[in-house]
Write a structure and sequence with these properties.
The complex is a heterodimer of chains A (158) and B (315). In chain A, the strands form 2 sheets. Chain A has a 5-stranded mixed β-sheet with strand order 1-2-3-4-5, sandwiched between helices. In chain A, strands 7-6-9-8 form a 4-stranded antiparallel β-sheet, with no helix packed on it. Chain A contains 4 helices and 9 strands; from the N terminus they run E-E-E-H-E-H-E-E-E-H-E-E-H. With 158 residues, chain A is α/β, with parallel strands linked by helices. The radius of gyration of chain A is 16 Å and the shape is globular. Chain B is an alpha/beta fold. Chain B has 2 domains: 119 residues, Rossmann fold (3-Layer(aba) Sandwich); 180 residues, 2-Layer Sandwich (Heat Shock Protein 90). Chain B has 10 helices and 11 strands. The model of chain B has no long low-confidence stretch (mean pLDDT 86). The chains are: A alpha/beta (158), B alpha/beta (315). Chains A and B meet through strand 3, helix 1 and helix 2 of A and helix 7, helix 8 and helix 10 of B.
């Protein structure tokens, strides 16, 4: 039977690409040793799942990084992780979010898509809870943000 | 449960006449007498003559300083449950309502969804027929069932659930939420539910990645189905060790991390990840938790807060 996939870590440019499920089998704190130049850059686009046990490990990793004086940058944060960052304040730590995925839906063709938002370029709009405009990759129509902005963007305003 | 007229009753406390009438019409299908009060004072006076099965309280009234008096009086008169109805503009009151620890049923929804959920909630209470996700799904919806016989099954089952949800045309977001909710509820049922005669949760501290063969009573059942309105995930253990107050306490924590170990954090995460969480408790026999994910489109027409119900089976 298919499983949800173990967490994987791969170098990806200046970042570590994290994929799969962050759960009881994850050992996130081990990533601390792979920081370079006082920075730990995590590309989280391929994270498919994180449960409460993964969250505990994530919080421990954040705390260890803080203790070691490391700056954490989160890139392309996948929706399952955004969900946890919004629910559990402690998961945010001192990490800086560079970009993240967000749910959009197309009124014209009904397609739902997770689209990447640049948190820096769109910083002012996001602070005003205004999701950036996006085009449907299938029909080209304007897509609508498919969640509650006050809830989905709350992790950006820790 | 005898009302003023001698029939079983439901007491509605709401200042708005239009809402009173809407709720009266919805709950009228139960066949119970519906007693109406405009405020807490009138409700307290009425309670002197009533033994309602259910008290439905407006969100404004439920945050009043006198609400504890009403809940105590209602419980003293035999009320099975106190329910609060919350409109889409009142979601900021959820933490305060949860903090009361006395509201066993909170329904957060605009009409017409309210009518469905209110009717189901009232009928479950009145009939003492609590169990089964079928009650929340349209007639004819198929439920898939799986028995979990070893702890490591959880990861496989959760992955299979997500794949099947996607195969039915649901979005990655819905599949992801379904995975999370199922994982937390199964983990809770496998590790937190088992309890010995002394009340010790003997599997609570075991590492979650440790393999466990689950014999008869330790086996956990998961069922799920989708009727294109709701995706329902139902998880049942055979211990019935989860208590009403423990649930209300876990839901009340504003920061999920404060929910601590044991069932607390899993329950709190599940609540925040679905649109409606239902606890059906048969103490010492079984606990059934049903998570409902609203899959109607578009999401933005929904309300940014979750409903919950805690039902305890009458012996």
């Amino acid at each position: 039977m298919e499983t949800r996939g173990r967490m994987t870590i791969q170098p990806h440019g200046d970042a570590l690409l994290i994929g799969g499920a962050i759960d009881e089998a994850a050992a996130l704190h081990e990533m601390i040793t792979r920081a370079t130049g006082g920075r730990l850059v995590l590309d989280l686009a391929a994270v498919t799942f994180i449960n409460s046990l993964g969250v505990r490990d994530w919080i421990r990793m954040q705390a260890a990084a803080q203790q070691a004086g490391l700056a954490i940058e989160l890139r392309r944060v996948a929706e399952p992780l955004v969900h946890q960052l919004n629910m559990i304040i402690a998961t945010r730590g001192n990490a800086k979010v560079a970009s993240f995925f967000a749910p959009y839906a197309c009124d014209a063709c009904g397609r739902e898509e997770s689209l990447l938002i640049d948190a820096v370029a769109n910083g002012a709009a996001l602070a005003a809870l205004q999701p950036p405009a996006m085009r449907c990759p299938e029909c080209g129509a304007q897509m609508a943000f498919n969640d509650f902005p006050e809830r989905y963007f709350s992790f950006l305003h820790a | 449960m005898v009302g003023v007229s001698g029939a079983p009753s439901i007491l509605i406390v709401h200042p708005d006449r239009k809402t009173q009438r809407i709720v009266q019409r919805i709950l009228g299908v139960t066949g119970y007498d519906i007693e109406l009060a405009d405020d807490l004072e009138q409700a307290l006076r009425l309670l002197g003559q009533l033994t309602p099965v259910l008290v439905v309280v407006d969100a404004d009234a439920v945050t009043s300083p006198r609400i504890a008096e009403l809940f105590t009086a209602a419980a003293g008169r035999g009320a099975e449950a106190c329910m609060t109805l919350l409109g889409g503009t009142q979601v900021d009151r959820v933490p305060k309502i949860l903090g009361l620890g006395a509201v066993t049923n909170l329904l957060v929804h605009p009409m017409p969804v309210l009518a469905e959920e209110l009717t189901i909630t009232a009928q479950k209470l009145i009939r003492n027929d609590l169990f089964g996700a079928e009650k929340y799904l349209l007639w004819g919806t198929e439920l898939s069932e799986i028995e979990i016989t070893r702890a490591s099954h959880r990861s496989e089952i959760v992955a299979a659930l997500a794949a099947q949800v996607r195969a039915r045309g649901q979005s990655a977001r819905v599949a992801s939420m379904a995975m999370l909710v199922a994982d937390e509820l199964i983990s809770n049922a496998v590790h937190n539910a088992p309890i010995d005669a002394a009340g010790v949760h003997y599997r609570r501290e075991l590492p979650r990645d440790q393999e466990l063969e689950l014999d008869g009573r330790h086996q956990v059942r998961m069922r799920w189905g989708c009727d294109a309105r709701y995706l329902a995930i139902e998880v049942t253990d055979r211990f019935g060790s989860l208590a009403r107050d423990q649930i209300l306490e876990a839901l009340a924590k504003e920061n999920v991390r404060e929910s601590g170990t044991g069932a607390g954090m899993g329950v709190a995460l599940a609540y925040r990840s679905c649109d409606h969480l239902v606890f059906n408790l048969s103490p010492g026999k079984r606990t059934e938790i049903i998570a409902l994910l609203d899959v109607r489109y578009p999401q933005t027409e929904r309300v940014a807060a979750s409903s919950y119900n805690v039902f305890v089976e009458r012996s």
